[in-house]
Specification:
By secondary structure, this protein is an alpha+beta fold. It folds into three domains: about 80 residues, Immunoglobulin-like; about 90 residues; about 130 residues, no CATH class. Helices cover about 25% and strands about 35% of the residues. It has seven helices and 22 strands. Strands 8, 9, 10, 11, 12 and 13 form a six-stranded antiparallel β-sheet that branches. Strands 3-2-5-6 form a four-stranded antiparallel β-sheet, with no helix packed on it. The chain is globular, with a radius of gyration of 24 Å.
Length: about 375
């Protein structure tokens, strides 16, 4: 009788655990949402074949005959939906998912052709322009050097005074053979100042995984991990989870505006600058400049409570200066922020260009 009773009890416990796991799975599934919508022209006619993608992700599609699109299995967070179609001006829609799916109606306007005064060089000048573009757009890291733009012919260059500009009417197709991605990049503008060396560019990207052998995939995974560690994405995800020190980040307050940097005596606790918006977002707000260095061993022994004087140092090769450009930054668990203007970045993070980008699906 005791054996039967024990067996019956164990079966009841097993069944209870199974039911709990099912409910947990359902709850997890319920946290998945979608972004759907329709794309129209100014005459309210649906547009078929428009490219629709989520910036910085692996999610891209095209509208059907009714102008419809849909992205499923999305976690709460901030997303930038981009719609592009030849003959129309591309558009960006910022979307915040909190506790429900989102439906959009997006209108595209026909692109106006604007003529401007330009200075067009010969073929040698174009080669020089491409060289400048590749260096400042892709970057100079090991990953960037293994990137190839497959359709450079679609780039148009112009020079106004000392400013080199580059534009494109279609996606740049970039193969990153170091990280194993094919990137479609919609370039909005690129500007390079020949006198100061300052570069600015703006655009949106969607990622596809390259096909490769098991050996190549192992190499790509190792390179992706190396690229991720210490990146701005890594920092913001660690900040969201309140584990900066465990992940190897040290953050100091900067007391001056020039090199060498004058730092506060001890690393700061970033928790004091964070407010919880809800279960999916945090708000980061500070008024000073911050200096961030990545290094796990250094982070564990850097916080010296006995140190009372400030620190004078030159910026480390892995160091970054960060300040808020807006009053605050809203950040989600993916390390994405609602407004792309949120931060002003210099140093290590500032040198990272397209050749070191990872999609937000990377984990």
């Amino acid at each position: 009788m005791n054996c039967s009773a024990n067996l019956y009890t164990m079966k009841r416990i097993t069944l209870s655990i199974f039911i709990i796991l099912i409910h947990a799975g359902l709850l997890k599934a319920q946290e998945s949402f979608s972004i759907s919508g329709m794309v129209f022209n100014t005459k309210e006619e649906p547009i078929q074949g428009a490219s629709v993608f989520i910036d910085g992700s692996e999610k891209g599609t095209a509208t059907n005959t009714k102008g419809e699109f849909k992205f499923s299995n999305l976690r709460p967070g901030t997303y930038h939906v981009i719609v592009s179609m030849i003959g129309y001006s591309s558009t960006k829609q910022n979307v915040i998912i909190q506790n429900q799916s989102i439906s959009l109606n997006i209108h595209l306007t026909e692109k106006l052709i604007v003529l401007r005064e330009v200075v067009i060089g010969d073929d040698s000048q174009r080669k020089d322009n491409i060289k400048i573009f590749l260096k400042n757009f892709l970057g100079e890291s090991a990953s960037a050097k293994k990137c190839t733009i497959l359709n450079l012919e679609i780039l148009d260059f112009s020079t106004v005074k000392k400013i080199l500009e580059a534009t494109s009417d279609d996606f740049l197709i970039i193969e990153n053979k170091s990280l194993g991605y094919r990137i479609k990049y919609l370039l909005r503008n690129f500007r390079y100042n020949r006198e100061t060396g300052v570069t600015s560019y703006d655009g949106e990207s969607v990622f596809e995984n390259l096909t490769g052998t098991d050996s190549e995939k192992n190499t790509w995974n190792a390179n992706r991990k190396k690229t991720y560690e210490g990146s701005l994405m890594h920092y913001l995800r660690a900040l969201y989870k309140n584990r900066l020190e465990q992940d190897g980040f040290i953050t100091y307050e900067v007391m001056n505006s020039n090199q060498p940097l004058q730092l506060a005596p001890r690393p700061i606790n970033m928790e004091q600058y964070i407010n919880t918006v809800d279960s999916n977002f945090i708000q980061l707000q500070f008024k000073t400049r911050l200096y961030v260095v990545y290094g796990k061993e250094k982070a564990l022994k850097e916080n010296n409570p006995d140190q009372k004087s400030g620190i004078t140092t030159w910026m480390d090769k892995n160091g970054s200066i960060m300040r808020l450009f807006l009053d605050n930054a809203i950040i989600d668990s993916k390390g994405s922020y609602v407004d792309y203007r949120s931060f002003f970045i210099r140093g290590f993070w500032g040198r990272k260009r397209i050749g070191d980008q990872l999609p937000f699906e990377y984990n």
